[in-house]
Design a protein that fits this description.
Helix content: 55-70%
Shape: globular
Number of strands: 2
Distance between the termini: 30 Å
Mean pLDDT: 82
Order of helices and strands: HEHHHHHEH
Strand order of the largest sheet: 1-2
Strand content: under 5%
Largest sheet: 2 strands, antiparallel
Length: 168
């Protein structure tokens, strides 16, 4: 498991696994291979046209990307509120203790691996939500759309903005 790796090696192993998944989908028939998948977003188009009709009544119906923009920011607000609640909970304090000193948290009887797995599951769920919105935005899915550039950009934002800082 990549969670048993220390500091810098865990993200490297995670990126390597993501690349394995991307290349697998690039060669898999059920994912469309290099041709990709098209026509999967009809339900969203119906919802977006309904939202555009509502927005037309207040004079904002001209931009076709506005419904997606609104839904993304609403989802972002909900996710941010949930993360802040988790961070203030006892579970979040244990994660902060693991981040500061993993051995001390383990010495206090906390199952470090279980907490790391839970944290990774939440991060994967957030990544799935963002990938869903990306798929709705591009309207045509092919594996090279999900290249590691997004991952490296995310790591750069994390490092430059500050660890454990929503504002950064």
């Amino acid at each position: 498991s990549s969670l048993r790796l220390r500091t810098d090696y865990s993200p490297i192993a995670t990126i390597a696994f993501a690349e394995i998944v991307r290349y697998t989908f690039q060669n898999a028939d059920f994912a469309g291979g290099n041709q990709g998948i098209i026509g999967y977003d009809q339900e969203w188009r119906d919802i977006a046209s309904w939202l555009l009709r509502l927005l037309t009544h207040i004079g904002l119906g001209g931009d076709t990307q506005l419904p997606l923009f609104i839904v993304v920011w609403l989802c972002f607000g909900l996710c941010l509120a949930g993360l802040r609640l988790l961070q203030a909970s006892p579970w979040g304090r244990v994660l902060r203790a693991i981040r500061e000193d993993e051995e001390a948290a383990a010495a206090l009887g906390k199952n470090v691996l279980a907490y790391k797995l839970q944290s990774l599951a939440i991060a994967a769920a957030l990544a799935a939500v963002s990938g869903f919105f990306l798929a709705l935005n591009v309207t045509y899915l092919y594996p090279s759309e999900f290249d590691p550039t997004f991952t490296f950009l995310g790591y750069a934002v994390l490092v430059l903005g500050g660890f454990a800082s929503y504002g950064g």
